[in-house]
Amino acid sequence: MHHDIPAVVLDMSATGIGIVRSLAQKGIKVYAFDTLGKYKIGKTRHAICGACPNPVTEEEALLYFLCQVGLNFSQKAVMLAGSDDYVHFISKNRYVLSQYYRFLLPEHSLIEAVLDKRLTYELAVKSGVPCPKTFIVNDEQQLVQIIGQLIFPCILKPVHSSHFRSNIDHKLYKKAILIEDAAQLQEEYLFYRQYGELMIQEAIPGEENAIFSVKTFFDKKMDLKGLWMNQKLHQFPPHFGSSALVVSKREEEVIKLAVPFLKSIEMKGLAIAEFKKDPRDGKFKFIEINPRIGLTQGLSIACGVDLAYLYYLSLTNQDPEPVVVQKDGIKWVYFVRDFLSFRQKKRLGEMTFFEWLKGLSGKKVEALFRWDDPLPFIRSFVSHLRNLWSRR
């Protein structure tokens, strides 16, 4: 295998750091960019790092910036994105960027669809994939009309997570809001609708460990080149957040749902399909798709299916053999988030200190900490604690 073609990673959160480390340890020269705040926290010794314009609010400036970076390469670099904002930016500007970079994405209309939860669920229903009951709410009058059809508790969530997050103060942002009754629904809807479109969804009961994610890489011919999956154990914030502690675990029933679905919509490139097992009927229900590498990329390496590297090899015309067999039972922990999740659960009487410690036992990898590159972990830890203090 040759590694002479550089890689450019857009994102310096734990996701991007996982991609950087994966490629750098193979001897690939990596450049990593993100907005100033994230760059300051995530800069790593395994890449040439820098700040770049914001993909949402400074799109033209970022496009110019990346074209200038691309002029310095003797060959087109492989480009990878670690966040939905960067994926959307690359897809939207794919013609210009393809003059300087190698990347693989599905059609832009599909990128738009999977980043719009309303359209994503339409795709799932059309493909016959089990889904929680979902309602799109355009105004208060429509909300009143559907209240009689709802079973509480339910979930209120944004249709466009990225747009919603960019409009709202980070102290108020929630990935999903658990609604206990009609009065709370009307109150929360009236408050949050100013920040973006909202949808109401049936709440699937069960613990966080009922959630499974399938990570895939389909090449340009839609041949499956890489697949692995994990089971969530803890999230931050608890119940409706991002992964804080997961374990590598293959679940064939989920794969039988996810792979045909992704193939049917031609989800080429990298993707994550998330499902939750419904204890009421024992079926796995579809949650969402992300058109990129996931937060747990470090576990991808540890369990033997390094999607970032498979992507690099494929984009540099080295036609890697498919890798779909993983090592189960390895944990991935984002320590500071897992600790903060534990604190919230402890206050609610949902977890004890010894239960939390037990969850950390066994073979594991940390999202950010490495002895040869400790500063991203330290800076992230301090940043999380500052954010926690500011919310008091």
Low-confidence stretches: none
Number of helices: 16
Largest sheet: 7 strands, mixed
First-to-last CA distance: 52 Å
> Would you tell me the overall average pLDDT?
92
In total, how many beta strands? 16
Tell me the structural class: alpha/beta
Q: Name the beta content range.
A: 15-25%
Our Rg estimate from Cα atoms comes to 20 Å
Indicate the percent of residues in helices.
Answer: 25-40%
Order of strands in the sheet with most strands: 14-13-10-11-12-15-16
- The general outline is globular
Domain ATP-grasp: 121-316
Protein name: Carbamoyl-phosphate synthase
Organism: Neobacillus citreus
GO molecular function, one term: metal ion binding
Quick overview of this protein structure:
This is Carbamoyl-phosphate synthase. By secondary structure, the protein is α/β, with parallel strands linked by helices.
Chain-wise SSE layout:
Blueprint: E1 7-10, H1 14-24, E2 30-34, H2 36-42, E3 48-51, H3 59-70, E4 77-81, H4 84-92, H5 94-97, E5 101-102, H6 108-114, H7 117-126, E6 134-137, H8 140-146, E7 154-158, H9 161-167, E8 177-179, H10 182-192, E9 198-202, E10 211-218, E11 224-236, E12 242-248, H11 252-264, E13 269-277, E14 284-290, H12 297-302, H13 307-315, E15 331-333, H14 335-347, H15 353-359, E16 364-366, H16 375-390
Domain ATP-grasp: 121-316
Protein name: Carbamoyl-phosphate synthase
Pfam families: CPSase_L_D2
